[in-house]
Write a structure and sequence with these properties.
Helix content of chain A: over 70%
Radius of gyration of chain B: 17 Å
Number of domains of chain B: 2
Largest sheet of chain B: none
Strand content of chain B: under 5%
Oligomer: heterodimer
Structural class of chain A: mainly alpha
Distance between the termini of chain B: 56 Å
Number of helices of chain B: 8
CATH architecture of the largest domain in chain B: Orthogonal Bundle
Radius of gyration of chain A: 27 Å
C-alpha cells in the first residue's frame, strides 16, 4: 500500500488535509473551549504586580559586591605592594573577579535585551548565549580558589617556620586546586545535566541549561541548511 | 507601539479571548502534561502583555503574536522546572477547558489526537514550523516568524510532511 493510499484509509487524502484537520480542530475549539475569565484577570493582575525581575536585581547586587571587593583588594594591594606574594595573589584575584564582573554584566545585558517578539531563531540564539554566559561565569568564579591562601602570606616569615609554612601552604593550594580544576572541567553545558552541578547552575538562573546543547545544535543545523 | 486604546487592560484581555484557540493549540503541542500547559498558557499571556511595547508596526500583528507565543513555548519546553504563578494547584480550575459535547465527532477527535501526537514528537523548531503551516500562514510570514528564508521554509515543510505521511502509513499498516 502506498503512503497516499494509507492516508486515504486514515481519512486523509493528501497532506493538505492536515490543514483541514487542524481547521476542524479550530472549529471544535471555538465551539467548546471555555476561557475562565476570572482566572485570566487574576493571572494578568498578579503577573503584572510580580513582574519585578529578581534575577536582574540579584545580578546587580553581585556586580556591586564584586566591584566593592575589587576596590577593597585594590586598596590593600596599594598598601602592601611591597609583599610580592600578597601583591601577586591580590592581582590575580582582582583579575578573576573582573572576569566574573564582565560575565555578570554580559548576563545582565543579555537578560535586559531579551526580546520575545524577534524571530524565533534570533531569540533562541540569544537565550542560548545567556546560558553559555552563566556557565562561563560560574566556571571562572571557582578557578580563583587556589590563589586565596597566598593572600595570607606575611611579608616576613619567622625564622625556622618558613619551610613548614610553605609546605602547608602548598598542600592547602593543592587541596583547593584539585576541586577547582575538577569543577572547571565539570561545569560545562554537558556536565550541568548532573545532580549537584545542575542544582548549582539552576541557582544561577540557568535551568534550561541541560537541553541547551542539543538545542544550540538544532539552531546551527537550521542555519546550515539556510546557507 | 501596539494599538491598545484607552483601556489597555480590557483591550489586552479581549486580545487573549480572541486568540485563545491559538494559545491552547500551541500549549498542547509543546506540553503533554496538564499542569505544564496551564503554566505555559500563563507565561504566554504574561509575555504578550509585557511585550506590548515591542510591537513593530512594520510586521503583521499575527506575526508578532506567533513569535512571542512560540518563543515562550520553546523556552518553556526547555526548562525542567517551572516558576509560573500556580493559581490552581492540583489542576481543578483551569484557565482554559475543553467541554465534552455530545455532538463531538469521535473519529475527528481521534485524528486530531493522532496529529497532535505526531506534532509533539517533532523537534522544537520543526514543531513551530508545522504549527504555522497548519495555521495556514503564508510561507513569507512563516519565514519572518522563524527567521529563515522562504525557500528553507518550503524545503523543511516538504520534509516534515513526508515524515508525517510516513507515520500515518506506519500506524495504518499496524492496524491492518
Amino acid at each position: 500500500m502506498s503512503t497516499d493510499e494509507s492516508l486515504g484509509a486514515a481519512g486523509l487524502r493528501d497532506t493538505d488535509e492536515f490543514q483541514q484537520l487542524w481547521k476542524a480542530y479550530d472549529v471544535k475549539l471555538q465551539r467548546s473551549l471555555k476561557l475562565n475569565q476570572q482566572l485570566l484577570e487574576e493571572i494578568h493582575s498578579r503577573k503584572v504586580r510580580t513582574s519585578f525581575n529578581w534575577q536582574i536585581f540579584a545580578k546587580l547586587m553581585l556586580i556591586g559586591l564584586a566591584v566593592g571587593w575589587n576596590i577593597l583588594l585594590g586598596s590593600l594591594l596599594w598598601a602592601f605592594h611591597t609583599n610580592p606574594v600578597f601583591a601577586a595573589a591580590a592581582g590575580l584575584i582582582i583579575l578573576f573577579t573582573s572576569y566574573g564582573i564582565a560575565g555578570y554584566v554580559m548576563q545582565l545585558l543579555l537578560m535586559v535585551y531579551i526580546n520575545m517578539s524577534k524571530s524565533i531563531l534570533e531569540t533562541q540564539k540569544h537565550l542560548a548565549r545567556l546560558e553559555a554566559a552563566i556557565v562561563w561565569t560560574l566556571r571562572i568564579s571557582f578557578f580563583q580558589a587556589p590563589v586565596w591562601p597566598f593572600l595570607f602570606v606575611p611579608a616576613v616569615l619567622p625564622a625556622g617556620v618558613a619551610h613548614l609554612y610553605w609546605t602547608i601552604l602548598i598542600l592547602v593550594t593543592i587541596a583547593l586546586a584539585v576541586p577547582a580544576i575538577w569543577l572547571y572541567r565539570r561545569i560545562t553545558v554537558a556536565g550541568a545535566q548532573q545532580g549537584w552541578v545542575k542544582k548549582m547552575v539552576d541557582n544561577e538562573g540557568g535551568k534550561a541549561i541541560a537541553r541547551a546543547r542539543g538545542f544550540i545544535k538544532e539552531i546551527e543545523d537550521y542555519r546550515r541548511e539556510e546557507e | 507601539m501596539m494599538n491598545i486604546p484607552n483601556d489597555k487592560q480590557a483591550a489586552f484581555l479581549q486580545l487573549i479571548r480572541d486568540n485563545k484557540g491559538i494559545l491552547y493549540k500551541i500549549s498542547h503541542s509543546y506540553c503533554r502534561n496538564k499542569d505544564d500547559r496551564e503554566d505555559l498558557m500563563q507565561e504566554m499571556i504574561y509575555q504578550l502583555w509585557r511585550s506590548g511595547h515591542q510591537f513593530d508596526a512594520n510586521y503583521k500583528f499575527s506575526t508578532w503574536m506567533y513569535r512571542i507565543a512560540l518563543n515562550v513555548a520553546i523556552s518553556f519546553y526547555r526548562k525542567q522546572t517551572r516558576s509560573g504563578v500556580r493559581i490552581a494547584p492540583g489542576g481543578e480550575i483551569h484557565l482554559m477547558d475543553l467541554e465534552d459535547r455530545p455532538d463531538d465527532n469521535e473519529e475527528l477527535t481521534e485524528k486530531i489526537d493522532l496529529l497532535q501526537q505526531f506534532i509533539s514528537q517533532l523537534g522544537e523548531l520543526d514543531k513551530a514550523l508545522m504549527i504555522l503551516y497548519l495555521e495556514e500562514r503564508p510561507h513569507r510570514e512563516i519565514a519572518e516568524i522563524l527567521g529563515i528564508s522562504e525557500t528553507n521554509v518550503a524545503t523543511k515543510l516538504h520534509r516534515i510532511k513526508g515524515r508525517l505521511k510516513q507515520q500515518f502509513f506506519t500506524i495504518n499498516k499496524s492496524l491492518l
